[in-house]
């Protein structure tokens, strides 16, 4: 089985995903998978009927892989999306697909989809300048969470605790970037400084950890300094995570849940979830789980275990021959 990872260190990332890339490459080698890592700027696309020559890497046509893993998340550019769409058109399986990646990049659109599915989410509002602060206070209240429309690892997320603090932030944004796309979300007090990250693969919830800031920071992201610990997957957690992944058409996803008293609300979904903290907290081999799912999805089972069986058979034959020689 052959695969590509499309990845580049995003300037908007608090913590580059080198751990995830290195783990995927290492486990691929153990699983007898040929895996190459490419940056989007290495690609050129040709729209032609000669499909086998329509993808160029470093200016040269290359054989198509069996699967592609985009690892850019919210930092996925239009060009990167075009590459993924092109590969999908050529029949290459992409984990995740271009439509799903584009959907979760837009946090408002993703919330609209989840709300349509009657899933529990924080009340969300799109900012319109000048901001009607009285309306915000009436519909959402303070404190209020302020988010850029696209972001990851907790970047572009702020908490305005009071009306005056919110007013100052909105004036700053309007003065410096009046075309900025900003959404407001209900602040869930019982989830201050902590949340859940649930990893779903192929419609299954395979791992869950509680993230905790351990201080005054209301954001619990491990990439921002939070800590992770194993958390049991309850039926409610499993249902919310898998329903979210299915609604957003994500084969591999990181689903963030907020503690809402005795229940949970869906904060957001990630199409390229980091898993360093998750592997440390849960002792689950996330990279291997992803590759096992891809094998099942594609029906390609040339696992290294086959080679192991052959080696075992060869060793047994050799041992038998040595026993005969001793006799």
UniProtKB/TrEMBL annotation:
Q: What taxonomic classification does the UniProt entry list for its organism?
A: Bacteria, Pseudomonadati, Pseudomonadota, Gammaproteobacteria, Alteromonadales
Q: What is this protein called?
A: RimK family alpha-L-glutamate ligase
| Keywords, ordered alphabetically | ATP-binding, Ligase, Magnesium, Manganese, Metal-binding, Nucleotide-binding, Protein biosynthesis
Query: SUPFAM superfamilies from the xrefs?
Result: Glutathione synthetase ATP-binding domain-like
Q: Which domain of life does the protein's organism represent?
A: Bacteria
Cofactor(s) for this UniProt protein: Mg(2+); Mn(2+)
Molecular-function GO term, any one: ligase activity
Q: Where, if anywhere, are coiled coils annotated?
A: none
Task: Indicate the segments forming the ATP-grasp domain, all copies.
Answer: 111-295
């Amino acid at each position: 089985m052959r695969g590509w990872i499309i990845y580049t260190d995003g300037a908007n990332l608090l913590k580059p995903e080198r751990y995830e890339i290195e783990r995927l490459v290492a486990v691929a080698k153990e699983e007898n998978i040929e895996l190459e890592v490419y940056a989007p700027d290495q690609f050129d696309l040709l729209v032609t009927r000669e499909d086998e020559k329509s993808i160029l890497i470093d200016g040269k046509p290359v054989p198509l892989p069996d699967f592609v893993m985009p690892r850019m998340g919210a930092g996925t550019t239009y060009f990167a999306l075009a590459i993924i769409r092109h590969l999908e058109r050529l029949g290459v399986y992409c984990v995740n697909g271009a439509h799903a990646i584009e959907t979760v990049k837009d946090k408002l659109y993703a919330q609209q989809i989840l709300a349509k599915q009657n899933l529990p989410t924080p009340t969300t509002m799109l900012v319109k300048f000048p901001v009607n602060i009285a309306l915000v206070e009436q519909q959402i209240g303070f404190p209020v969470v302020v988010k850029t429309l696209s972001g990851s690892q907790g970047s572009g997320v702020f908490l305005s605790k009071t009306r005056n603090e919110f007013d100052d932030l909105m004036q700053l944004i309007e003065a410096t970037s009046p075309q900025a796309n900003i959404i407001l979300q209900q602040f869930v007090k019982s989830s201050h400084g902590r949340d859940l990250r649930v990893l779903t693969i192929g419609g299954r919830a395979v791992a869950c950890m509680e993230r905790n800031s351990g201080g005054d920071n209301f954001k619990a992201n491990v990439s921002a300094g939070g800590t992770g610990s194993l958390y049991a997957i309850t039926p409610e957690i499993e249902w919310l995570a898998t329903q979210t992944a299915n609604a957003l058409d994500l084969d591999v996803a990181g689903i963030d849940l907020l503690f809402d008293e005795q229940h949970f609300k869906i904060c957001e979904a990630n199409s390229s979830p980091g898993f360093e903290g998750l592997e440390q907290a849960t002792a689950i081999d996330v990279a291997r789980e992803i590759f096992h799912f891809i094998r099942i999805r594609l029906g390609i089972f040339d696992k290294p275990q086959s080679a192991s069986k052959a080696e075992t058979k060869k060793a047994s034959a050799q041992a038998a021959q040595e026993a005969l020689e001793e006799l």
